[in-house]
Write a structure and sequence with these properties.
By secondary structure, the chain is α+β, with helices and mostly antiparallel strands. It has helices spanning 2-37, 63-77; strands spanning 43-48, 51-57, 84-89.
Length: 90
């Protein structure tokens, strides 16, 4: 009986993890599409453990652009700007 309870706990945790991963994948795709709609040629969003990394094609992000991207990330994930990291590629 104890083995069955342990199995159910592991199964429930796995299902919760799968749900979180699926939600992150959906949010990443939404962020990428919305950032590119703002005029960026390319964008990759990576969400992991409450942090978001944004990779964009840019030779220098302006404060207004950072604000736009931060707003998109927050709207899609609830991740605050302090937890968003930017990588700029030329």
């Amino acid at each position: 009986y104890q083995i069955r309870e342990s199995f159910i706990e592991v199964l429930n945790q796995a299902l919760e993890d799968i749900s979180t991963i699926a939600a992150n994948i959906e949010a990443e795709a939404n962020i990428e599409a919305m950032v590119m709609a703002k005029g960026f040629e390319q964008c990759v969003a990576i969400i992991n453990d409450g942090l978001c990394t944004i990779v964009v094609m840019s030779e220098g992000l302006l404060p207004a652009q950072l604000a736009q991207i931060n707003e998109i990330v927050f709207e899609q994930t609830g991740i605050k700007p302090v937890n968003v990291k930017y990588i700029q590629k030329n």
